[in-house]
Amino acid sequence: MxxxxxxxxxxxxxxxxxxxxxxxxGALGLRCTTRSMLVGNSWRPGWLALGSxxxxxGIWTMHFIAMMGFKVDQAxxxxxxxxxxxxxxxxxxxxxxxxxxxxYKGARGTALMTGGAITGLGxxxxxxxxxxxxxxxxKLEYNTLTVAASVVIxxxxxxxxxxxxxxxxxxxxxxxxxxxxxxxxxxxHYTGMAALxxxxxxxxxxxxxxxxxxxxxxxxxxxxxxxxxxxVVVLFDPLMVMGKPVWTPVENKPGIPARELVxxxxxxxxxxxxxxxxxxxxxxxxQNR
Length: 289
What we know:
Layout: E1 5-6, H1 13-36, H2 44-67, E2 71-72, E3 78-79, H3 81-105, H4 109-132, E4 134-135, E5 138-142, H5 144-165, H6 171-194, E6 196-200, H7 212-235, H8 239-242, E7 258-262, E8 271-275
Antiparallel strand pairs: 1-2, 3-4, 5-6, 7-8
């Protein structure tokens, strides 16, 4: 028997709250990615790891908030806790791989395409693994073309978001990137849900797992507490608002001319000049001095 699926049992409340959660996680994570490009290599892994955890927590929380509004007539829904939290781990790890690639290789060319693809696939993997943890007296089936479209949406929007975050042009760019990331997650989620159909079993059977209400506490307490902590770290860092620093870090290596920052009195952008070091600091002869 075909089950009647309702993904908006609470109206627009769950989609709106879910989108805001995705944007919050995206804003913190992408800003940490931008911040990592302004520091030395010793601090970069920490900022990228914080960004990965923020985005992963945001999209995971978004998914299950949206699932609170998902119901199937005549079929109570439960969730397998192990599978549910495994989807959180997958989200953080795969998003982390994509962010680390962009953080170290730059938001351009092959690095951007690779990082965006892995990040988008991480979003899609989290969604469908979370759906695999759903238990009900029926069978879930998906339309292949719609599933493929949901993955394309996630990859494309994640790539654009990472590109915007990699421009290092100030706070507003990261806000725009977070809105795009939120669109990637929610767009992928509801496109994937549109691909779903439920075939109920003829015989009634008890379903194992936890109910949505029992999962609400860890969903709201754990990831939201982490996102709040990440927000405090981000907001109290001065370069989060300033964007690109007024200086350019330079590594002095043998055989490479050192560079000095020269400021223009007119207020134009500083210019880097090079100084060539010779074996003798002063080659003038005593007669020419």
